[in-house]
Amino acid sequence: MQSDFLLIAAPTKAGEAFMKHTKLVGIPFVALTNNKMERIKLKGLGAKRIIQVDTTDSGASIKEVCPCTTM
């Protein structure tokens, strides 16, 4: 079974509006961030799945901080 998601990096108001609209119409998405404060903000905007990338360390791993539930 394949699950398709949009990957959204929304550091601007326009990006946030796009994410809200995507959620409203029922398109599953994953939000992408590189810091804790934005992760908290994205969670508050309704992102159920968030991937946080540590951009301060080129050898750092990528971690999914809010695992997906059934969407």
**End-to-end span in angstroms?**
14 Å
**Strands in their spatial order, largest beta sheet:** 1-2-3-4
Q: Mind describing the biggest β-sheet? A: 4 strands, mixed
Structural class: alpha/beta
Number of helices: 2
* Count of individual beta strands: 4
Low-confidence stretches: none
Mean pLDDT: 81
Round the Cα radius of gyration to an integer and report it: 12 Å
Helix content: 25-40%
What order do the helices and strands follow? EHEHEE
β-sheet strand percentage? 15-25%
Principal-axis shape: globular
Question: Could you outline the blueprint of secondary structure elements for this entry?
Answer:
Layout: E1 6-8, H1 13-25, E2 29-33, H2 36-44, E3 50-53, E4 62-66
Parallel strand pairs: 1-2, 2-3
Antiparallel strand pairs: 3-4
Written account of the structure:
The chain is built from two helices and four strands; from the N terminus they run βαβαββ. The protein is an alpha/beta fold. A four-stranded mixed β-sheet has the order 1-2-3-4, covered by helices on one side. α2 (36-44) links the parallel β2 (29-33) and β3. The model has no long low-confidence stretch (mean pLDDT 81).
